[in-house]
Amino acid sequence: xxxxxxxxxxxxxxxxxxxxxxxxxxxxxxxxxxxxxxxxxxxxxxxxxxxxxxxxxxxxxxxxxxxxxxxxxxxxxxxxxxxxxxxxxxxxxxxxxxxxxxxxxxxxxxxxxxxxxxxxxxxxxxxxxxxxxxxxxxxxxxxxxxxxxxxxxxxxxxxxxxxxxxxxxxxxxxxxxxxxxxxxxxxxxxxxxxxxxxxxxxxxxxxxxxxxxxxxxxxxxxxxxxxxxxxxxxxxxxxxxxxxxxxxxxxxxxxxxxxxxxxxxxxxxxxxxxxxxxxxxxxxxxxxxxxxxxxxxxxxxxxxxxxxxxxxxxxxxxxxxxxxxxxxxxxxxxxxxxxxxxxxxxxxxxxxxxxxxxxxxxxxxxxxxxxxxxxxxxxxxxxxxxxxxxxxxxxxxxxxxxxxxxxxxxxxxxxxxxxxxxxxxxxxxxxxxxxxxxxxxxxxxxxxxxxxxxxxx
Length: 457
What we know:
Elements: H1 3-11, H2 30-46, H3 49-56, H4 65-75, H5 94-101, H6 114-134, H7 144-155, H8 158-171, H9 182-188, H10 191-198, H11 200-206, H12 215-219, H13 229-242, H14 246-257, H15 260-264, H16 271-278, H17 286-302, H18 333-338, H19 350-421, H20 425-451
Helix pairs in contact: 1-2, 2-3, 2-4, 3-13, 4-13, 5-6, 6-7, 6-8, 7-8, 10-11, 10-14, 14-17, 19-20
Organism: Yarrowia lipolytica (strain CLIB 122 / E 150) (Yeast)
Protein name: YALI0C24332p
GO molecular function, one term: GTPase activator activity
C-alpha cells in the first residue's frame, strides 16, 4: 500500500469533505469508511500523530476496536510513565474497587456464559489494582472502573490495558484521584459558563444550580451514562485526540445546550426541579453524540478556559494547567496536519508527572484540612446558634413566668381586698394584712423556686 498517497488524498479532501463535517447527520458510506480506515492505518504506520489526531476527531472516530487497540497507545505516546512492578502491599481502596468490579460489564459486552464474565471481571480488577498499587498516592473513585472497562475491552490484554489506563490516570484523571473532592468540583465550575457560551437562555436557567449534576459524565468520560460501547469509544477517541481534559467539559456543555427545549419548560425559580432534570442523563444515540462533538469542536475553537473566573480557582498543578491543558485550536483540519507530519518528540517525563502529583498531594492535604476546619466551623456555628435559641427561649419563658407571678400576686391581693369588704370592720385590717403578707411571701417563694430550677411553667 502507498501510505503517502492515501494520506495526501485524505488531506486534500479527495475522498469527501463530509468526513470532517459532523453537521452531516448521515453515517459514513462504506466507501468513505474504507478510505478512512486506510488513512488511519497509514497514519499509524507512519507515526503521523498529527494526522491520527485529526482522524480520531472526525466523523466515525477511529472506526473500530482493532484500530483503537493500535492507535490509543500512540495518542498517549507524548507522555511516559515509569511502569514499575506493583508493590505487594494492597492499596487502601481495593475493597471499593471490588464492589464496583462486581457491577461491571452490565451493558456490554454480552458474554456467552457467566464464566467469561467472571474472567473479564477478574482481569479488570487486576488492571485497576495494578495501576493503583503502582501509584499509591492516587485514590480510587467510583466510576473509575467505567473508564477502565472501556480500556480493557478495546485493548483485550491485561498488560496493555494497564499501560494505557495508567497514562490516562496520570495525565487526564489525576485531579479526580486526590484526597480532596475540591479539585473535581473545580472542573465542574466551568460548565455553566460554557453552556451560556452556547445558549445564553439555557445558561441563565442553570446558573443558580451547583454543577455537581455533571460529575458522573465528566469523571467517567460518559462511560457511566451511555450504554452503547461504540458511542462511548467515539467519545474516548475525541478526548484522547484532543489531549485536554477541557474536552469532556465542552462535550457536556454541548449536550446540555441540546436540552434547551426540555429545560425551557421548567419553572426557572424551581432550582430543585432543574437540578433533578440535569441529574437525569438524556437518552443519546450516536447521531446525538456526533452533534455534541461538532458543537464541542466549535466551542473549543473559540473558547479558552483561562478566560473564565473558574480558571483562577484551579490549582497550578491541575491537569487543566499541566499534562492535559487546553492549547489554541487550529483554524482548519489541513492547518492542523501541515503543522506536524511526524510524531512529536517532546514527551511529558515521568519525573515531571510525579512532581505534579506530589505537589498536588501536599496541596490536597492542606485543602482537605481547610475543608475540615470549615465544616467544623459551620458545625460550631450551628451549635452556637442552637444554644442561643435555647437561651432565648429560656429567657422568654422566664419573662412569661415572672409576668405570671406578678399576675398571680395581684390576684391574691385583689381577692384579699374583696374578701375584706365582706368581713366585719374590726377584723378587716388584720385579715387584709395577713393575706397581703401571704401573697407576697408566696410570690417570693415561687420566684426562688423558678430561679433554682425547682419549678417551671
